[in-house]
Write a structure and sequence with these properties.
By secondary structure, the chain is of the alpha/beta class. The protein folds into 2 domains: about 1-30, no CATH class; about 35-265, Vaccinia Virus protein VP39 (Rossmann fold), CATH 3.40.50. About 30% of the residues lie in helices and about 15% in strands. It has 9 helices and 7 strands, in the order αααβββαβαβααββαα. The protein has a 7-stranded mixed sheet, with helices on both faces. The longest helix is centred in the middle third of the chain and has 13 residues, at about 130-140. The relative contact order is 0.12. Bound molecules: S-adenosylmethionine. S-adenosylmethionine (SAM) binds next to β2.
Length: about 270
């Protein structure tokens, strides 16, 4: 967003005071606070999530797993917004009225969550490892409204370096091979697509390529008779980035345009 456009949006969205307070906080070395109202609900991944929420029967409860600076979180339009992060990169002492932040590992958050708590949308964007993201997906499905949708970040690694599960090792490889300290990291979250395709066939899997990078969208085809449970993952352990992505993104990812996916979501019989 260029300077003028951003200034107009800050004013038009009623965020001026909070924005000015954040500028002062940053000048005195303090972390920013979340803005009380969405600054731009139409762009980036927040734009995608808001468009999906537009076609759901309700948008009362949103959960984000991994919130970092809150860039996406604060741009989501939903009745109540919950976020969980082991170490959020903003000051969460004061939050917008409809927001709650849980500072703990996602495993602990889900372990303490009331069984009947349901979300219309869950955005999973925390640690970039298959097993962690798999647990988060299973928990999220078990707390999803029947019309609910899950968006997963980091499902398609940009290259073999980015697909190294351990982030430190991935950065070290980027330094060694390309002499760069900054390198995107998506880890092995991609294995989740194969796990779901093989072991959880009652989930629909769709992937969008934009904005900025691919992300995967999932929803339940048929309500479960019982809770979703973690299944064996042995068969995936030997699979490598090269096995899977040497000829592009495989069919299992269900790559589609967002418009097509929104039509699919809207036309489900619930
Ligand atoms: C990629 S950032 C999230 C970005 C954010 N969703 C956005 O769109 O701006 C990942 C975040 O996940 C958090 N995280 C990593 N592992 C976690 C875990 N096991 N439980 C909760 N949060 C975790 C990190 O602290 C980090 O802030």
């Amino acid at each position: 967003m260029n300077f003028l456009r951003r200034a107009i949006r800050i004013l038009a969205t009623g965020n001026l005071l909070a924005f000015r307070r954040n500028v002062l906080r940053q000048k005195s070395g303090k972390q920013s606070r979340l803005l009380p109202r969405p600054l731009d609900a139409h762009r980036g991944v927040a734009g995608v999530i808001n468009k999906i929420l537009d076609v759901l029967p309700q948008r009362k409860n949103y959960l984000e797993v991994g919130i970092f600076k809150g860039a996406t979180f604060q741009n989501i339009v939903a009745g109540e917004k919950w976020g969980v992060d082991i170490a959020p990169s903003f000051d969460y002492a004061e939050l917008p009225k409809n927001s709650r932040v849980f500072v703990e590992p996602s495993d602990d958050f889900f372990a303490g969550l009331a069984v009947d708590k349901k979300f219309d949308m869950v955005y999973i964007d925390a640690e970039h490892t298959f097993h962690q993201a798999y647990r988060e997906l299973v928990h999220s499905i078990n707390h999803l409204e029947k019309w609910g949708v899950i968006v997963l970040d980091d499902t398609v690694p940009q290259d073999p370096i980015a697909s190294i599960p351990n982030e430190t090792e991935s950065k070290e490889a980027a330094m060694r091979i390309h002499g760069k300290t900054v390198w995107n990291h998506q880890g092995d979250v991609w294995k989740l697509i194969f796990q779901v395709r093989n072991k959880h066939k009652n989930l629909t899997v769709r992937t969008i390529l934009h904005p900025s990078r691919p992300r995967t969208i999932m929803w339940i085809n048929n309500p479960f008779e019982s809770k979703m449970a973690l299944e064996e993952t042995e068969n995936l352990m030997a699979l490598t980035y090269e096995d899977v992505f040497s000829s592009g993104i495989p069919n299992e990812f269900g790559v589609r345009e967002l418009g097509e996916i929104l039509s699919e979501i809207r036309s489900r019989k619930l």
